[in-house]
Each structure stands twice: as structure tokens, then as C-alpha cells.
Amino acid sequence: MGKFEEFRDGGGGFSSRMPPSFVRPGRALLCGLLGAAASLFPRPARAELVVFEDGRVVKAASYRVIGQELEIGLPGGGGYSVDLSRIERIIHDEVMPEPPKLALAAAPAAVAYDLRFDPKRKPLFGSPYDSVIVAEAKRYDVDAAFVSALIRAESNYEPRAISRKGARGLMQLMPATARRLDVRRPFDPASNVRGGVRYLRELLDRYESKPELVLAAYNAGEGAVASYGGVPPYRETIGYVKRILGWWTPSIQAKPVAAGPLGATPASMPVPVASAPLR
On the CB side of 21, how many CA atoms lie within 13 Å of its CA? Predict the structure, then answer.
């Protein structure tokens, strides 16, 4: 086997090792501009956005999961604890500065791909859970290769993984999300993947099979995608989308179902990143 390169996911803090053979030039077509843009900006101070299931958002200086509670530290000092089941997600509030207006003007719209289940498009990594992925992908009519790439980023195929944010299982479902999706056993691979793929189906329908928007919403939430009108400019989310698209290779694995603006082809189309509002 060849030399391995280490990657780390943006959400749960899991690390893995991947052979460079997985990183082919064609896999960077859709997300090349995304990576180039990310490298232009300095790294700002970090904070966290705690999103409650009722839509309320709290900016936190720190947080930690203690049992079934989330302890939130506030920027001005002090803090409080809440039931973890009330938390929909936690986002790293690390927003890149607004890109130049010329770059924004040249950025094309998101492109839809055929992300329906196709038995010819199989899970990508040969994991012990491929049969589960295929079964649930077929159940909800979702591309199995896309699901497998997301699982790799979320948990590195560790069925009992728990992130520092409290997300659980193969597809890293937060307790509130698991409850909404009727996932009662988040560490059971079949149950977890069923809930996660069901959520992907919801996002695919909402975002008309545009993979970068689906992934951004899975990572940062639909509210963040709506607020920014596209992929939120969170460094974590941009890296997450870029990594999964790089593995999945939509220009090779699936056929586009909509042309881009001004006759642009999906193979040359970068991932659009929304600009950050002035703070």
C-alpha cells in the first residue's frame, strides 16, 4: 500500500488515514475554487453557535457535553446548562471575510445532480456497513456513494462514535435530530443510517439535489444556508463540503440534471460560497 495522508473531519474531531489514490485530480473539479478561496483568508478567533431545536441561536465562548447536558460558556462570562436533547446542532462560528466583489460576480449558481439510487453507484470505501448503506439508500432513493462519503467525513465508520458536540453514531445525529427522525438506537448502524439517509432525502428534496447545499445544510443547518443564501462561509463547513465532494466526484459518479448559468458545464463549476454579512 502507498503512503497515507491524514485528514480530520470538521465536526466531530475524528481523524483517519486515506491513501492518496483516493484523491484524484478529477475529484477537485467541483470544489477547487472553494479550496483556493479558503486559503486566501486569515484564521479569525473562534466561537460557537449553539442552535436549539426551536430555532433559537446562542453564541458561546465554549461548551462541553456532560452526560445528557450541554454546558454553555457565554462570551461575557458565566454560563448555564441545558438538556442536550434540546440542541439541534453546534456550529463553529469562524466566518471568513467577505471575498472580493469580482469573485462573487463570477461565481455560478449551484448545480443539481442525479442523486437518486442507482445500483451501479456503490459505497466508495468497502466498509463493513456497505450493505446497510445500500439498503437505506435504496429505501429513500438516495445515491449510495454520496451517503458513504458523508459517513466517512462524519464518523470515519465508527458506529459508536460520539463527537465533542454530542452527535452520535455513523451519521453523527444529534439527540434532537435523532428524536425527530425516530432514531431510538443511535449506535445501531442500521437505525442510525436509516435516520441519516432519511434526513438526506429531506435535504435533497428541499435543495433540488444540489449536493453542496445539501452537505452545507447537513453540517451547518438549513437556517445557516437560508441566512447566507448558499454555502455558509464557515471555515468548518467549507472544508466539510470540499472534502466530501472530493471523495464523491459528482462529475464522474452522477449525471447533472440542470445546466449552469451562461452555458457553464458542471465539470468546470466551482462551489458557490455565500459572503459573510458585515458584523
Answer: 6
Query: Residue 20 CB: number of other CB atoms within 10 A?
Result: 10
Query: Which residue ranges make up each domain of the chain?
Result: 5-44+97-268, 45-93
Phi, psi values for residue 252, rounded to 5°: -110, -45
Task: Report the catalytic residues.
Answer: 154
pLDDT tens across 43-66, in order?
444 578 888 888 788 888 888 888
Q: Which architecture does CATH list for 45-93? A: Roll (2.30)
What are the tens digits of pLDDT across the range 94-108?
665 554 443 433 445
Taking only the tens place, the pLDDT of each residue in 67-79 is 888 888 888 888 8
Q: How many residues does the chain have?
A: 279
Cα 187 from Cα 173, distance rounded (Å): 10
For the stretch 155-174, pLDDT in tens is 999 999 999 889 999 999 99
Q: Which fold has domain 5-44+97-268?
A: Lysozyme (1.10.530)
| Radius of gyration for the chain, computed over Cα atoms and rounded to the nearest angstrom | 18
Closest by CA to 215, choosing from 241, 233, 191, 195, is 241
Cα(103)–Cα(33) distance, integer angstroms:
10
